[in-house]
Design brief:
Elements: H1 2-20, H2 22-60, E1 64-68, H3 91-100, E2 104-120, E3 123-133, H4 137-140, E4 145-148, H5 153-158, E5 162-165, H6 167-174, E6 183-186, E7 189-197, E8 212-216, H7 217-220, E9 234-239, H8 245-259, E10 271-274, H9 275-318, H10 320-328, H11 333-370, H12 378-404, H13 408-413
Parallel strand pairs: 3-8, 5-7
Antiparallel strand pairs: 1-9, 1-10, 2-3, 2-6, 2-9, 4-7, 5-8, 6-7
Protein backbone atom coordinates (compact mmCIF):
# COMPACT_ATOMS: atom_id res chain seq x y z
CA UNK A 1 0.00 0.00 0.00
CA UNK A 2 2.87 2.35 0.73
CA UNK A 3 4.02 2.10 -2.89
CA UNK A 4 0.60 3.18 -4.16
CA UNK A 5 0.61 5.98 -1.60
CA UNK A 6 4.03 7.09 -2.83
CA UNK A 7 2.90 7.01 -6.44
CA UNK A 8 -0.24 8.99 -5.63
CA UNK A 9 1.66 11.65 -3.67
CA UNK A 10 4.34 11.88 -6.36
CA UNK A 11 1.80 12.45 -9.11
CA UNK A 12 0.07 15.01 -6.92
CA UNK A 13 3.34 16.86 -6.29
CA UNK A 14 4.08 16.75 -10.04
CA UNK A 15 0.63 18.12 -10.83
CA UNK A 16 1.11 20.92 -8.25
CA UNK A 17 4.48 21.78 -9.78
CA UNK A 18 2.94 21.91 -13.23
CA UNK A 19 0.04 24.02 -12.06
CA UNK A 20 2.13 26.48 -10.03
CA UNK A 21 4.99 26.81 -12.54
CA UNK A 22 3.39 26.10 -15.89
CA UNK A 23 5.91 27.86 -18.12
CA UNK A 24 8.99 26.49 -16.31
CA UNK A 25 7.63 22.94 -16.34
CA UNK A 26 6.54 23.02 -19.98
CA UNK A 27 9.92 24.35 -21.09
CA UNK A 28 11.60 21.57 -19.12
CA UNK A 29 9.34 18.96 -20.71
CA UNK A 30 9.87 20.33 -24.21
CA UNK A 31 13.10 18.41 -24.74
CA UNK A 32 11.52 15.10 -23.69
CA UNK A 33 8.47 15.76 -25.87
CA UNK A 34 10.55 16.61 -28.95
CA UNK A 35 12.87 13.65 -28.36
CA UNK A 36 10.06 11.11 -27.98
CA UNK A 37 8.22 12.63 -30.94
CA UNK A 38 11.32 12.39 -33.16
CA UNK A 39 12.24 8.82 -32.25
CA UNK A 40 8.71 7.39 -32.35
CA UNK A 41 7.81 9.32 -35.53
CA UNK A 42 10.90 7.95 -37.30
CA UNK A 43 10.26 4.42 -36.04
CA UNK A 44 6.57 4.55 -36.95
CA UNK A 45 7.35 5.81 -40.44
CA UNK A 46 10.10 3.22 -40.93
CA UNK A 47 7.97 0.35 -39.59
CA UNK A 48 5.04 1.34 -41.79
CA UNK A 49 7.22 1.64 -44.88
CA UNK A 50 9.03 -1.61 -44.08
CA UNK A 51 5.80 -3.57 -43.57
CA UNK A 52 4.40 -2.28 -46.87
CA UNK A 53 7.61 -3.14 -48.70
CA UNK A 54 7.74 -6.55 -47.02
CA UNK A 55 4.15 -7.21 -48.07
CA UNK A 56 5.20 -6.43 -51.63
CA UNK A 57 8.18 -8.76 -51.35
CA UNK A 58 6.00 -11.51 -49.85
CA UNK A 59 3.93 -11.54 -53.04
CA UNK A 60 6.98 -13.02 -54.75
CA UNK A 61 7.08 -15.81 -52.18
CA UNK A 62 9.86 -16.65 -49.75
CA UNK A 63 10.38 -20.01 -51.50
CA UNK A 64 10.52 -18.59 -55.04
CA UNK A 65 13.67 -18.32 -57.16
CA UNK A 66 13.95 -16.50 -60.50
CA UNK A 67 16.33 -17.61 -63.25
CA UNK A 68 17.16 -14.43 -65.18
CA UNK A 69 19.90 -12.91 -67.27
CA UNK A 70 20.50 -9.93 -64.98
CA UNK A 71 21.10 -10.21 -61.22
CA UNK A 72 19.14 -7.79 -59.08
CA UNK A 73 21.33 -4.82 -58.24
CA UNK A 74 20.74 -2.43 -55.33
CA UNK A 75 22.80 0.76 -55.19
CA UNK A 76 26.50 1.28 -55.84
CA UNK A 77 28.29 0.48 -59.07
CA UNK A 78 26.43 -2.14 -61.11
CA UNK A 79 28.92 -4.16 -63.28
CA UNK A 80 26.58 -4.50 -66.24
CA UNK A 81 29.44 -5.39 -68.59
CA UNK A 82 29.77 -8.75 -66.83
CA UNK A 83 26.23 -9.75 -67.72
CA UNK A 84 25.46 -8.12 -71.07
CA UNK A 85 26.68 -11.12 -73.11
CA UNK A 86 24.81 -13.71 -71.07
CA UNK A 87 22.10 -15.74 -72.81
CA UNK A 88 18.46 -15.21 -71.92
CA UNK A 89 16.65 -18.07 -70.14
CA UNK A 90 15.17 -20.29 -72.84
CA UNK A 91 12.40 -22.84 -73.26
CA UNK A 92 15.14 -25.44 -73.60
CA UNK A 93 16.36 -24.48 -70.11
CA UNK A 94 12.80 -24.67 -68.83
CA UNK A 95 12.17 -28.14 -70.27
CA UNK A 96 15.49 -29.43 -68.92
CA UNK A 97 14.83 -28.05 -65.43
CA UNK A 98 11.35 -29.61 -65.35
CA UNK A 99 12.87 -33.06 -65.83
CA UNK A 100 15.81 -32.57 -63.43
CA UNK A 101 14.56 -30.66 -60.40
CA UNK A 102 13.10 -32.61 -57.47
CA UNK A 103 12.85 -30.00 -54.69
CA UNK A 104 10.21 -27.85 -56.41
CA UNK A 105 6.43 -27.57 -56.24
CA UNK A 106 6.16 -25.59 -59.46
CA UNK A 107 8.23 -24.27 -62.35
CA UNK A 108 7.06 -21.88 -65.06
CA UNK A 109 8.44 -19.97 -68.03
CA UNK A 110 7.26 -16.38 -68.38
CA UNK A 111 7.60 -13.60 -70.94
CA UNK A 112 6.25 -10.05 -70.66
CA UNK A 113 5.06 -7.55 -73.26
CA UNK A 114 4.41 -4.12 -71.76
CA UNK A 115 2.25 -1.17 -72.84
CA UNK A 116 -0.41 -3.05 -74.74
CA UNK A 117 -3.84 -1.74 -75.72
CA UNK A 118 -6.83 -3.94 -74.88
CA UNK A 119 -10.14 -3.43 -76.67
CA UNK A 120 -13.72 -4.54 -76.12
CA UNK A 121 -16.28 -3.10 -78.52
CA UNK A 122 -15.97 0.68 -78.13
CA UNK A 123 -14.03 0.50 -74.86
CA UNK A 124 -10.25 0.27 -74.63
CA UNK A 125 -7.55 0.22 -71.95
CA UNK A 126 -4.05 1.41 -72.74
CA UNK A 127 -0.79 0.57 -71.01
CA UNK A 128 -1.76 -2.95 -69.93
CA UNK A 129 1.03 -5.47 -69.27
CA UNK A 130 0.67 -8.77 -71.13
CA UNK A 131 2.15 -11.82 -69.38
CA UNK A 132 2.51 -15.13 -71.19
CA UNK A 133 3.28 -18.16 -69.03
CA UNK A 134 3.31 -21.93 -68.95
CA UNK A 135 0.72 -23.96 -67.08
CA UNK A 136 2.43 -24.00 -63.65
CA UNK A 137 2.41 -20.20 -63.39
CA UNK A 138 -0.27 -20.43 -60.69
CA UNK A 139 2.05 -22.66 -58.63
CA UNK A 140 4.90 -20.14 -58.68
CA UNK A 141 2.80 -17.03 -57.93
CA UNK A 142 0.05 -16.39 -55.39
CA UNK A 143 -3.09 -15.72 -57.46
CA UNK A 144 -6.54 -14.74 -56.18
CA UNK A 145 -9.65 -14.32 -58.31
CA UNK A 146 -12.72 -12.17 -57.99
CA UNK A 147 -14.27 -13.83 -61.04
CA UNK A 148 -13.69 -17.01 -62.97
CA UNK A 149 -10.77 -19.42 -62.83
CA UNK A 150 -7.27 -20.31 -64.00
CA UNK A 151 -6.46 -22.01 -67.32
CA UNK A 152 -7.24 -25.70 -67.63
CA UNK A 153 -4.42 -28.10 -68.56
CA UNK A 154 -5.93 -28.55 -72.01
CA UNK A 155 -6.14 -24.76 -72.59
CA UNK A 156 -2.52 -24.37 -71.60
CA UNK A 157 -1.19 -27.25 -73.71
CA UNK A 158 -3.16 -26.42 -76.87
CA UNK A 159 -2.59 -22.66 -76.59
CA UNK A 160 -6.28 -21.76 -76.46
CA UNK A 161 -7.15 -18.06 -77.00
CA UNK A 162 -8.11 -17.43 -73.37
CA UNK A 163 -7.06 -14.65 -71.00
CA UNK A 164 -7.22 -13.68 -67.32
CA UNK A 165 -7.60 -9.94 -66.70
CA UNK A 166 -6.43 -7.68 -63.91
CA UNK A 167 -9.17 -5.93 -61.93
CA UNK A 168 -8.44 -2.47 -63.36
CA UNK A 169 -8.37 -3.75 -66.93
CA UNK A 170 -11.71 -5.51 -66.42
CA UNK A 171 -13.19 -2.37 -64.87
CA UNK A 172 -12.01 -0.21 -67.75
CA UNK A 173 -13.41 -2.57 -70.38
CA UNK A 174 -16.67 -3.72 -68.83
CA UNK A 175 -17.53 -0.94 -66.30
CA UNK A 176 -18.38 -3.38 -63.51
CA UNK A 177 -20.34 -5.86 -65.65
CA UNK A 178 -19.45 -9.59 -65.54
CA UNK A 179 -16.36 -10.28 -67.64
CA UNK A 180 -16.43 -14.08 -67.95
CA UNK A 181 -17.12 -15.34 -71.47
CA UNK A 182 -16.65 -11.99 -73.20
CA UNK A 183 -14.15 -11.57 -76.01
CA UNK A 184 -11.49 -8.89 -76.02
CA UNK A 185 -8.89 -7.94 -78.62
CA UNK A 186 -5.14 -7.82 -77.89
CA UNK A 187 -2.38 -7.47 -80.53
CA UNK A 188 -4.97 -8.09 -83.25
CA UNK A 189 -6.20 -11.39 -81.80
CA UNK A 190 -9.45 -12.21 -80.05
CA UNK A 191 -9.30 -13.84 -76.62
CA UNK A 192 -12.06 -15.15 -74.36
CA UNK A 193 -12.01 -13.99 -70.74
CA UNK A 194 -12.00 -16.93 -68.30
CA UNK A 195 -11.00 -15.11 -65.11
CA UNK A 196 -10.42 -11.80 -63.37
CA UNK A 197 -7.74 -11.34 -60.70
CA UNK A 198 -8.78 -9.98 -57.33
CA UNK A 199 -8.07 -6.27 -56.95
CA UNK A 200 -4.79 -5.74 -55.08
CA UNK A 201 -4.03 -2.04 -55.33
CA UNK A 202 -0.62 -0.59 -56.09
CA UNK A 203 2.09 -1.65 -53.67
CA UNK A 204 5.42 -0.06 -52.72
CA UNK A 205 7.42 -2.01 -55.33
CA UNK A 206 4.88 -1.44 -58.09
CA UNK A 207 3.95 -5.12 -58.22
CA UNK A 208 0.25 -5.68 -58.80
CA UNK A 209 -1.94 -7.85 -61.01
CA UNK A 210 -4.50 -5.04 -61.42
CA UNK A 211 -3.18 -3.84 -64.78
CA UNK A 212 -2.03 -7.25 -66.10
CA UNK A 213 -3.28 -9.78 -68.62
CA UNK A 214 -2.25 -13.42 -68.46
CA UNK A 215 -2.38 -15.74 -71.50
CA UNK A 216 -1.03 -19.27 -72.13
CA UNK A 217 2.54 -19.29 -73.43
CA UNK A 218 1.66 -21.65 -76.28
CA UNK A 219 -0.84 -19.09 -77.57
CA UNK A 220 1.65 -16.22 -77.11
CA UNK A 221 4.15 -18.00 -79.42
CA UNK A 222 1.92 -16.96 -82.30
CA UNK A 223 2.01 -13.31 -81.20
CA UNK A 224 5.69 -12.64 -80.47
CA UNK A 225 9.04 -14.35 -79.90
CA UNK A 226 8.70 -15.31 -76.23
CA UNK A 227 12.44 -16.02 -75.93
CA UNK A 228 13.52 -12.63 -77.25
CA UNK A 229 15.29 -10.36 -74.76
CA UNK A 230 12.77 -7.58 -75.52
CA UNK A 231 10.16 -9.61 -73.61
CA UNK A 232 12.22 -10.29 -70.46
CA UNK A 233 11.97 -14.09 -70.42
CA UNK A 234 12.49 -15.71 -67.03
CA UNK A 235 11.99 -19.04 -65.29
CA UNK A 236 10.18 -19.07 -61.94
CA UNK A 237 10.78 -21.87 -59.44
CA UNK A 238 8.76 -22.40 -56.24
CA UNK A 239 10.59 -24.67 -53.78
CA UNK A 240 8.87 -27.22 -51.60
CA UNK A 241 7.81 -25.97 -48.17
CA UNK A 242 9.69 -28.69 -46.28
CA UNK A 243 12.95 -28.06 -48.16
CA UNK A 244 15.31 -25.24 -47.17
CA UNK A 245 15.65 -22.50 -49.79
CA UNK A 246 19.44 -22.99 -49.82
CA UNK A 247 18.99 -26.62 -50.90
CA UNK A 248 16.54 -25.65 -53.63
CA UNK A 249 18.94 -22.97 -54.83
CA UNK A 250 21.89 -25.37 -54.79
CA UNK A 251 19.97 -27.96 -56.81
CA UNK A 252 18.81 -25.29 -59.28
CA UNK A 253 22.31 -23.88 -59.71
CA UNK A 254 23.76 -27.33 -60.36
CA UNK A 255 21.05 -28.15 -62.88
CA UNK A 256 21.49 -24.85 -64.74
CA UNK A 257 25.28 -25.30 -64.92
CA UNK A 258 24.73 -28.80 -66.28
CA UNK A 259 22.20 -27.61 -68.87
CA UNK A 260 24.56 -24.82 -70.02
CA UNK A 261 27.57 -27.16 -69.82
CA UNK A 262 29.59 -24.77 -67.67
CA UNK A 263 32.99 -26.13 -66.67
CA UNK A 264 34.04 -26.31 -62.99
CA UNK A 265 35.64 -23.07 -61.82
CA UNK A 266 33.88 -21.02 -64.50
CA UNK A 267 31.40 -18.31 -63.46
CA UNK A 268 27.67 -18.87 -63.96
CA UNK A 269 26.16 -17.36 -67.10
CA UNK A 270 22.79 -16.89 -65.40
CA UNK A 271 21.43 -15.15 -62.30
CA UNK A 272 19.45 -16.76 -59.49
CA UNK A 273 17.43 -13.98 -57.85
CA UNK A 274 15.43 -14.40 -54.65
CA UNK A 275 13.40 -12.29 -52.24
CA UNK A 276 15.98 -12.54 -49.45
CA UNK A 277 18.20 -10.26 -51.55
CA UNK A 278 15.56 -7.54 -51.27
CA UNK A 279 14.93 -8.28 -47.59
CA UNK A 280 18.62 -8.02 -46.70
CA UNK A 281 18.90 -4.72 -48.54
CA UNK A 282 15.84 -3.42 -46.68
CA UNK A 283 17.36 -4.50 -43.35
CA UNK A 284 20.55 -2.55 -44.07
CA UNK A 285 18.71 0.56 -45.23
CA UNK A 286 16.24 0.70 -42.36
CA UNK A 287 18.96 0.00 -39.80
CA UNK A 288 20.72 3.20 -40.90
CA UNK A 289 17.46 5.16 -40.74
CA UNK A 290 16.79 3.83 -37.21
CA UNK A 291 20.28 4.86 -36.09
CA UNK A 292 19.69 8.35 -37.50
CA UNK A 293 16.40 8.55 -35.59
CA UNK A 294 18.09 7.52 -32.33
CA UNK A 295 20.87 10.08 -32.83
CA UNK A 296 18.53 12.99 -33.64
CA UNK A 297 16.00 12.11 -30.94
CA UNK A 298 18.75 11.20 -28.47
CA UNK A 299 20.11 14.75 -28.40
CA UNK A 300 16.65 16.14 -27.67
CA UNK A 301 16.10 13.56 -24.94
CA UNK A 302 19.53 14.36 -23.47
CA UNK A 303 18.66 18.05 -23.29
CA UNK A 304 15.24 17.15 -21.87
CA UNK A 305 16.89 14.95 -19.25
CA UNK A 306 19.00 17.86 -18.06
CA UNK A 307 15.86 19.99 -17.98
CA UNK A 308 14.06 17.43 -15.80
CA UNK A 309 17.08 17.17 -13.49
CA UNK A 310 17.14 20.96 -13.19
CA UNK A 311 13.45 21.24 -12.33
CA UNK A 312 13.83 18.45 -9.77
CA UNK A 313 16.72 20.28 -8.05
CA UNK A 314 14.53 23.39 -7.95
CA UNK A 315 11.67 21.31 -6.55
CA UNK A 316 13.91 19.88 -3.82
CA UNK A 317 15.08 23.40 -2.94
CA UNK A 318 11.53 24.74 -2.73
CA UNK A 319 10.33 21.85 -0.55
CA UNK A 320 13.37 21.55 1.74
CA UNK A 321 11.43 22.51 4.86
CA UNK A 322 8.64 20.06 3.96
CA UNK A 323 11.26 17.33 3.60
CA UNK A 324 12.59 18.24 7.07
CA UNK A 325 9.11 17.97 8.58
CA UNK A 326 8.50 14.61 6.88
CA UNK A 327 11.78 13.21 8.20
CA UNK A 328 11.14 14.55 11.71
CA UNK A 329 7.81 12.69 11.67
CA UNK A 330 9.60 9.43 10.87
CA UNK A 331 9.82 9.34 7.06
CA UNK A 332 12.67 7.10 5.94
CA UNK A 333 15.32 8.10 3.44
CA UNK A 334 13.95 5.68 0.82
CA UNK A 335 10.51 7.26 1.19
CA UNK A 336 11.90 10.70 0.30
CA UNK A 337 14.05 9.18 -2.46
CA UNK A 338 11.17 7.34 -4.08
CA UNK A 339 8.87 10.33 -3.70
CA UNK A 340 11.10 12.52 -5.88
CA UNK A 341 11.99 9.65 -8.21
CA UNK A 342 8.32 9.04 -8.90
CA UNK A 343 7.81 12.75 -9.44
CA UNK A 344 10.61 12.85 -12.04
CA UNK A 345 9.18 9.80 -13.79
CA UNK A 346 5.72 11.37 -13.76
CA UNK A 347 7.06 14.53 -15.41
CA UNK A 348 8.92 12.51 -18.07
CA UNK A 349 5.83 10.41 -18.71
CA UNK A 350 3.87 13.60 -19.26
CA UNK A 351 6.42 14.73 -21.82
CA UNK A 352 6.41 11.27 -23.41
CA UNK A 353 2.63 11.19 -23.71
CA UNK A 354 2.71 14.64 -25.32
CA UNK A 355 5.26 13.34 -27.83
CA UNK A 356 3.14 10.27 -28.57
CA UNK A 357 0.07 12.47 -28.98
CA UNK A 358 1.96 14.56 -31.54
CA UNK A 359 2.93 11.39 -33.43
CA UNK A 360 -0.67 10.21 -33.41
CA UNK A 361 -1.75 13.61 -34.71
CA UNK A 362 0.85 13.27 -37.47
CA UNK A 363 -0.61 9.89 -38.49
CA UNK A 364 -4.07 11.45 -38.76
CA UNK A 365 -2.72 14.33 -40.87
CA UNK A 366 -0.92 11.93 -43.21
CA UNK A 367 -4.01 9.71 -43.52
CA UNK A 368 -6.68 12.33 -44.12
CA UNK A 369 -4.52 15.11 -45.56
CA UNK A 370 -2.20 13.16 -47.86
CA UNK A 371 -4.02 9.81 -48.18
CA UNK A 372 -0.98 7.99 -46.77
CA UNK A 373 -1.36 5.49 -43.94
CA UNK A 374 1.30 5.78 -41.22
CA UNK A 375 0.63 3.37 -38.35
CA UNK A 376 1.55 4.06 -34.71
CA UNK A 377 2.29 0.49 -33.63
CA UNK A 378 1.83 -0.65 -30.04
CA UNK A 379 5.51 -1.59 -29.77
CA UNK A 380 6.44 2.01 -30.53
CA UNK A 381 4.00 3.29 -27.89
CA UNK A 382 5.55 0.92 -25.34
CA UNK A 383 9.01 2.06 -26.43
CA UNK A 384 8.07 5.73 -25.97
CA UNK A 385 6.67 5.06 -22.50
CA UNK A 386 9.72 2.96 -21.61
CA UNK A 387 12.17 5.66 -22.73
CA UNK A 388 10.26 8.24 -20.69
CA UNK A 389 10.42 6.07 -17.56
CA UNK A 390 14.17 5.42 -17.99
CA UNK A 391 14.97 9.11 -18.57
CA UNK A 392 12.84 10.05 -15.56
CA UNK A 393 14.70 7.58 -13.33
CA UNK A 394 18.12 8.74 -14.53
CA UNK A 395 17.30 12.45 -14.37
CA UNK A 396 15.55 12.27 -11.02
CA UNK A 397 17.97 10.03 -9.15
CA UNK A 398 20.58 12.56 -8.04
CA UNK A 399 18.08 15.27 -6.96
CA UNK A 400 16.06 12.60 -5.14
CA UNK A 401 19.19 11.18 -3.51
CA UNK A 402 20.30 14.61 -2.32
CA UNK A 403 16.81 15.21 -0.89
CA UNK A 404 16.88 11.90 0.99
CA UNK A 405 20.23 12.78 2.61
CA UNK A 406 19.11 16.13 4.02
CA UNK A 407 19.48 16.67 7.77
CA UNK A 408 15.93 17.15 9.16
CA UNK A 409 16.94 19.94 11.56
CA UNK A 410 18.80 21.95 8.93
CA UNK A 411 16.01 21.29 6.44
CA UNK A 412 13.31 22.65 8.81
CA UNK A 413 15.40 25.76 9.56
CA UNK A 414 15.57 26.55 5.85
Amino acid sequence: MIIFRLIGESFRFAADALRQNKLRTMLSLLGITIGIFTIIAVFSGVDTLRNKLQASVDKLGSKTLFVQKWPWGFGGDYPWWKYVNRPEPSLRDYDALKSRLEYVDGISFEATSASRTVKYRSSSVEGAVLHAATQDYDKTWNLDYQEGRYFTDNEGKTGSPVVILGAEVAKGLFSGEPAIGKQIKVMGRRLTVVGVFKKEGEDMLGMSQDNNLLIPLNFAKGLFDVQNSNYDPQINIRGKENIALEEVESELQGAMRSVHRIRPGTDDDFALNKTTMITNQLDTMFKMVNIAGWVIGGFSILVGGFGIANIMFVSVKERTNIIGIQKSLGAKNYFILLQFMFEAVALCLLGGFLGLALVYGLTLVSKYGFDTDVVLYMKNIVMGVGISVVIGMISGFWPAYSASRLDPVEAIRS
